[in-house]
């Protein structure tokens, strides 16, 4: 038995050497070997990962437990929303892959959780213009760009920018922490519309302000938190030596950021184990899928690095379905609306594909309900747009689908040239291999997050909806 194995190994080593011995050009060595060829699947894949600098992701530093404990309560805390009815977890539900399972998210004026969340009777309601992203690995150091259009970001070294402009606090430890103070400001998200009372029928002191009154809103949110005795100890433990009068929104943000970093770092997928050197961590099918992803299918052109994102912006001609955003509605110009450069129109930040299986529906507007269809779209955007079936998204949004010839033409003329499959189109079998690879990006620890949910909140508000 041993002997046979040794023989085989020697034979295959000879095969690898063969081109050199026979004087074949060196390039023949790097030519893609077939699965029956001389190089094993693992050798091929490891070489390709190496070529593309795909290495183990450095986890963020461990977060101070007292800061995480405070942040955990604040993440589920409805007291920080104008009407005391919405928390971060309403949309970033840890039991739903840290998102909400909706194409576009529903904030004020809606009720219910996850896919069941709907407008609350005839309350004034407005969709958020985009799909709720998941929060996996946002605390990793390289993650410095937030939002589908990158309108917030930075590092402690470069400083932070955000929709709050000059009012953006600069004392955060990460872009993730800098992000946390933004969702409380828009009326349709957490703050509430004028005239809408809170769940106890009391006036909402934030509702008459404008979306741009960042500092006033932040002060009111901070006051809501410090007013509850239940938060005194949590705050004192998280910020020892800082008197209550000196606490501001950046303390609240830092705590929520620490919680998300602690809870949503997900770097224990089969692919991570493979990157650590365990060849058995991936199935053959997933390895073949990875070879395509990092090879012929060129997914790595944008989904690069350990987190499968270059954090850059590209137009892949997503179907223009849903409400759209801003002046361009019912279209969404994405990055173009931020830079005001038409060349950036329809570009969105490349999503990380970590835990992507848990993240349906897909794209910035949740256009695709199924992962396979989101992948297929990349392979032939033109056909995908022509055949797009809007009934796969919520009925209130499916009617808002812009597919006139002009729009389709504009979408396709600025399509990213990085979107390309080398050689023949992918077969069904190859698409399934890519899907098997995407599956191997799921961290099993992300599947059950029930233990994250606090038993009760310092404000006494209900966790149910
Ligand atoms: C009503 C639903 C809703 C609520 C409530 C909400 N979010 Fe979000 N969140 C979204 C949507 C939608 C986006 C994407 C918006 C965009 O890109 O234009 C987003 C984006 C994010 C991002 C950026 C992720 C990335 O990769 O770009 C983070 C981080 C985040 N939210 C954290 C929070 C925190 C913390 C809270 C509570 C303070 C919160 N969210 C409250 C819906 C919500
Ligand atoms: C030109 C850059 C580019 C290339 C190449 C590319 N993608 Fe994407 N991908 C994107 C962008 C940008 C989005 C988001 C589009 C949007 O929201 O409108 C996306 C979205 C996705 C999504 C949905 C993720 C989510 O959270 O919504 C999946 C899955 C995906 N890509 C897989 C792939 C696969 C597999 C390949 C190779 C066959 C690939 N991509 C090639 C840029 C690219």
Automatic annotation (TrEMBL):
UniProt cross-references to SUPFAM superfamilies, sorted A to Z: Cytochrome c
GO cellular component terms listed in the entry, alphabetical order: cell envelope
Signal sequence extent: 1-30
Coiled-coil region: none
Principal cellular location given in the protein's record: other
Biological classification of the source: Bacteria, Pseudomonadati, Pseudomonadota, Gammaproteobacteria, Alteromonadales
Recorded superkingdom: Bacteria
Statement: the UniProt record of this protein carries the keyword Glycoprotein: no
Record key words, sorted: Heme, Iron, Metal-binding, Oxidoreductase, Signal
Location in or out of the cell: Cell envelope
Single annotated GO MF: electron transfer activity
The Cytochrome c domain, residue ranges: 284-442
Family annotation (InterPro entries): Cyt_c-like_dom, Cyt_c-like_dom_sf, Cytochrome_c_Peroxidase/MauG, Di-haem_cyt_c_peroxidsae
Organism per entry: Thalassomonas viridans
Record protein name field: C-type cytochrome
Record field: transmembrane: none
């Amino acid at each position: 038995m041993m002997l046979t194995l040794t023989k085989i190994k020697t034979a295959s080593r000879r095969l690898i050497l063969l081109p050199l011995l026979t004087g074949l050009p060196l390039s023949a060595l790097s030519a893609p070997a077939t699965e029956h060829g001389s190089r094993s699947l693992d050798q091929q894949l490891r070489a390709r990962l190496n070529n593309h600098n795909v290495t183990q992701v450095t986890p963020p530093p461990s977060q101070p437990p007292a800061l995480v404990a405070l942040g955990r309560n604040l993440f589920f805390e409805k007291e920080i929303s104008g009407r005391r009815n919405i928390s971060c977890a309403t949309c970033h539900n840890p039991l739903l892959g840290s998102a909400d399972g909706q194409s576009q998210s529903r904030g004020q004026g809606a009720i219910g959780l996850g896919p069941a969340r709907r407008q609350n009777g005839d309350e004034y309601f407005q969709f958020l213009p985009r799909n709720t992203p998941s929060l996996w690995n946002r605390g990793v150091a390289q993650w410095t760009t937030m939002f589908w259009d990158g309108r917030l970001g930075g590092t402690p070294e470069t400083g932070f920018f955000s929709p709050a402009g000059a009012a953006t606090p600069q004392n955060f430890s990460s872009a993730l922490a800098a992000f946390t103070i933004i969702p409380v400001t828009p009326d349709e998200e957490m703050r509430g519309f004028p005239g809408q009372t809170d769940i106890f029928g009391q006036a909402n002191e934030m509702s008459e302000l404008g979306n741009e009154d960042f500092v006033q809103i932040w002060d009111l949110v901070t006051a809501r938190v410090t007013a509850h005795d239940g938060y005194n100890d949590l705050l004192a433990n998280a910020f020892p030596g800082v008197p209550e009068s000196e606490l501001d929104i950046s303390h609240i943000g830092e705590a929520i950021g620490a919680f998300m970093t602690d809870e949503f770092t997900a770097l224990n997928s089969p692919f991570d184990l493979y990157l650590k050197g365990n060849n058995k961590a991936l199935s053959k099918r997933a390895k073949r899928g990875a070879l395509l992803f990092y090879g012929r299918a060129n997914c790595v052109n944008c989904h690069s690095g350990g987190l499968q994102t270059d954090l850059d912006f590209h137009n892949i001609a997503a179907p223009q379905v849903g409400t759209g955003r801003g002046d361009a509605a019912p279209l969404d110009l994405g990055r173009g609306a931020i830079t005001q450069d038409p060349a950036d129109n329809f570009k969105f930040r490349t999503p990380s594909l970590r835990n992507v299986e848990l993240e349906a529906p897909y794209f910035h507007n949740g256009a695709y309900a199924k992962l396979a269809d989101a992948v297929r779209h990349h392979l032939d955007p033109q056909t995908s747009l022509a055949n797009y079936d809007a009934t796969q998204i919520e009925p209130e949004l499916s009617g808002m689908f812009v597919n006139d010839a002009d729009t389709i033409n504009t979408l396709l003329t600025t399509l990213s040239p990085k979107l390309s499959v080398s050689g023949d189109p992918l077969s069904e079998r190859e698409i399934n291999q890519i899907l098997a690879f995407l599956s191997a990006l799921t961290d099993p620890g992300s599947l059950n997050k029930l233990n994250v949910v606090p038993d009760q909140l310092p404000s006494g508000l209900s966790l149910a909806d």
